[in-house]
Design a protein that fits this description.
The chain has 302 residues and is mainly alpha-helical. The protein folds into two domains: 10-71 and 240-292, no CATH class; 75-226, MetI-like (MetI-like fold), CATH 1.10.3720.10. The chain is built from 15 helices and no strands. It has helices at 2-42, 46-50, 64-69, 75-103, 112-121, 129-138, 156-167, 171-179, 184-195, 197-213, 216-221, 230-239, 241-251, 265-288, 291-298. It is globular, with a radius of gyration of 26 Å.
């Protein structure tokens, strides 16, 4: 009887594992399919793609769309702007979050409770779009590359995560360093930063994705084409896909151009989307392993 009960329990466990694996495989396919759908439409017959006939596998494969998209004006400069704001903005955001999170763990910090509550309040209230624009204008950040960097340096959510993470580390490490004569800066750089790498890697990917995907700041605050970000270029090209497709046909000298390679609004939208989203997709897997550990340890505890 005991053996039969054990076998029945084992069969139920195997059935649950099979269902669990099947569900996660299905969920993964649902998440991956939109990117796969975009990709197969970028390399398929443009006429079939525009008519919605490319669904599960590419048809009449070609790479003309990518060659045409990389010729679009302003795309290369926009990529440099987006890469620069992502690297610089992420580095400064992570450093400030780590340092402020460390300071908020110190009872001797002047006005610690007041400043911490003031920081949290900013997560729930904002003045609105017009006051935000006027503030940026008065600070001289309109048509300024620093508009991509300075407003994002202090992030309350990231600071809270780092603060909670540091509070979960053994206090004896900092106390022993203080006994040896180490100051706050030495403790922060030699002890806190190495211990906080999981949470810092987590907020790094959050900040990087936020910087890379942002386009509203460009939309409202930037008119200088040299400062346009890649996402804003995507936004503009998505809205102008029809006229761009006509322009590409004209520049191709195209009276009897093959419909397979002829640019269409659909081909423009899908190809530009793939070009913009691919870099962050390539970076994401390298930081993914830090996610669970960083978020679980740095989570706000009740």
């Amino acid at each position: 009887m005991e053996r039969r009960g054990f076998m029945g329990k084992r069969e139920r466990l195997n059935a649950f594992q099979l269902f669990n694996y099947g569900w996660f495989v299905l969920f993964t396919l649902i998440c991956v399919f939109p990117f796969y759908y975009l990709f197969i439409n970028t390399i398929s017959n443009n006429d079939l793609s525009s008519r919605g006939l490319v669904l599960f596998y590419p048809l009449d494969i070609h790479l003309t769309n990518y060659a045409n998209v990389f010729k679009l004006p302003g795309l290369g400069l926009a990529a440099v702007v987006s890469l620069s704001r992502t690297v610089i903005g992420t580095a400064l955001t992570v450093f400030s979050s780590a340092f402020l999170g460390y300071l908020f763990t110190k009872n001797e910090m002047w006005g610690r409770k007041f400043w911490y509550r003031f920081l949290i309040i900013t997560m729930y209230f904002n003045a609105g779009l017009i006051p935000w624009y006027l503030t940026m204008l008065n600070l001289g950040l309109v048509n300024n590359f620093l508009v991509y960097i300075l407003p994002a340096i202090v992030s309350p959510f990231f600071i809270i995560l780092v603060k909670t993470f540091i509070e979960s580390t053994p206090a004896a490490l900092q106390e022993s360093a203080q006994i040896d004569g180490a100051g706050y800066w030495v403790i922060f750089t030699k002890i806190i930063l190495p211990l906080s790498m999981p949470i810092l890697a987590t907020i790094s990917i959050f900040a990087a994705v936020g910087q890379w995907n942002s386009f509203t700041d460009t939309l409202f605050l930037v008119t200088n084409q040299k400062l346009f970000s890649l996402q804003f270029i995507l936004y503009r090209y998505m809205n102008e896909a029809t006229s761009l497709a006509q322009l590409m046909r004209q520049t191709s000298g195209a009276v009897n151009i093959d419909l397979t390679n002829m640019a269409t609004p659909t081909s423009i939208r899908t190809t530009v989307s793939m070009v913009v989203v691919t870099p962050i997709l390539l970076v994401y897997p390298f930081f993914q392993r830090f996610f669970v550990k960083g978020i679980m340890i740095g989570a706000v505890k009740g």
